[in-house]
């Protein structure tokens, strides 16, 4: 059954006019018809089964029916903190990390970050990246939508990370002990830019309680690291 995100509230047996994005996708892109069934979710948990009852030029109306309370969230809330990456590779990192259960995303700038955004360009990119995350939730079945937070300098963000477990991925470090993960009730996973973290950034992260670790003896690309690391971490839980 196809799934669509719409941030408005839903309730049992309610006729609801969907928002512009969902309506356009249903009516103009997929060309679905009155009577077809779908799922709608608003990112607050759970999803509604619904039936299309009307389609106009600009809007789709659905009748909400059964509610599925399953969130499909990961067993541990994880903030993925990652420097911005050039081009579609950023989309890949956000999409796949969402599918693997990331709870939220904090974008960063570091000494070796190539991407710099400001003003209207940053706002446009943030809207695009948030939509990438929404689309990933529609596809993978997750009913709580992670937020993509505006980029901050790494040095400004480090003191604000307040999870019980703070991890920084860096080649050459030791593997992470399984017991370390199992004792945490929240986690932040910090991955590096192309070219890696500087020594000063690594020292600063350690000063703020971050534990350095690595998966093995290979260096992962900036867009691969958060995806591979999330998959490996879930396998340990």
UniProtKB/TrEMBL annotation:
Q: Name one Pfam family in it.
A: Methyltrans_RNA
Q: Where in the cell is it found?
A: Cytoplasm
Question: Which part of the chain is the Ribosomal RNA small subunit methyltransferase E PUA-like domain?
Answer: 19-62
Q: Which reaction does it catalyse?
A: uridine(1498) in 16S rRNA + S-adenosyl-L-methionine = N(3)-methyluridine(1498) in 16S rRNA + S-adenosyl-L-homocysteine + H(+)
User: Per the database record, which ranges form the Ribosomal RNA small subunit methyltransferase E methyltransferase domain?
Assistant: 74-233
Q: Which GO terms describe its biological process?
A: rRNA base methylation
Q: Which UniProt keywords apply?
A: Cytoplasm, Methyltransferase, rRNA processing, S-adenosyl-L-methionine, Transferase
> According to the UniProt record, what class of enzyme is this?
transferase
Q: What is its main location?
A: cytoplasm
InterPro entries attached to this UniProt entry = Alpha/beta_knot_MTases, PUA-like_sf, RsmE, RsmE_MTase_dom, RsmE_PUA-like, tRNA_m1G_MTases_N
In Gene Ontology terms, what is one molecular function of this protein? Answer: rRNA (uridine-N3-)-methyltransferase activity
- GO CC annotation terms, alphabetical: cytoplasm
Q: What CDD domains does the record point to?
A: RsmE-like (cd18084)
Give the EC number(s) listed in the UniProt record.
Answer: 2.1.1.193
| Protein family according to the UniProt entry | Belongs to the RNA methyltransferase RsmE family.
Task: Note the PANTHER family from the entry.
Answer: 16S RRNA (URACIL(1498)-N(3))-METHYLTRANSFERASE, RIBOSOMAL RNA SMALL SUBUNIT METHYLTRANSFERASE E
Instruction: Report the function annotation for this chain.
Output: Specifically methylates the N3 position of the uracil ring of uridine 1498 (m3U1498) in 16S rRNA. Acts on the fully assembled 30S ribosomal subunit.
Q: What is this protein called?
A: Ribosomal RNA small subunit methyltransferase E
């Amino acid at each position: 059954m196809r799934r669509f995100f719409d941030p408005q509230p839903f309730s049992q047996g309610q006729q609801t006019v969907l928002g512009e994005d969902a309506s356009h996708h249903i009516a103009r892109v997929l060309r679905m018809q009155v009577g077809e069934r779908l799922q709608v979710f608003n990112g607050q948990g759970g999803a509604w089964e619904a039936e299309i009852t009307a389609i106009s030029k600009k809007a789709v109306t659905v009748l909400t029916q059964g509610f599925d309370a399953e969130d499909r969230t990961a067993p541990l809330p994880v903030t993925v903190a990652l420097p911005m990456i050039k081009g579609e590779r950023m989309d890949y990192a956000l999409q796949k990390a969402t599918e693997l259960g990331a709870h939220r995303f904090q974008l960063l700038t570091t000494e070796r970050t190539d991407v710099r955004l400001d003003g209207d360009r940053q706002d446009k990119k943030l809207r695009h990246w948030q939509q990438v995350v929404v689309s990933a939730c529609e596809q993978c079945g997750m009913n709580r939508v992670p937020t993509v937070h505006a980029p901050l300098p790494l040095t400004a963000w480090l003191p604000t990370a307040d999870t019980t477990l703070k991890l920084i991925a860096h080649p050459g470090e030791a593997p992470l002990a399984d017991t370390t993960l199992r004792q945490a009730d929240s986690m932040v996973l910090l991955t590096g830019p192309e070219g890696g973290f500087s020594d000063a950034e690594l020292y600063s992260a350690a000063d703020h309680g971050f534990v350095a670790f690595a998966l093995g003896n290979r260096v992962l690309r900036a867009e691969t690291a958060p995806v591979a690391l999330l998959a490996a971490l879930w396998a340990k839980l």
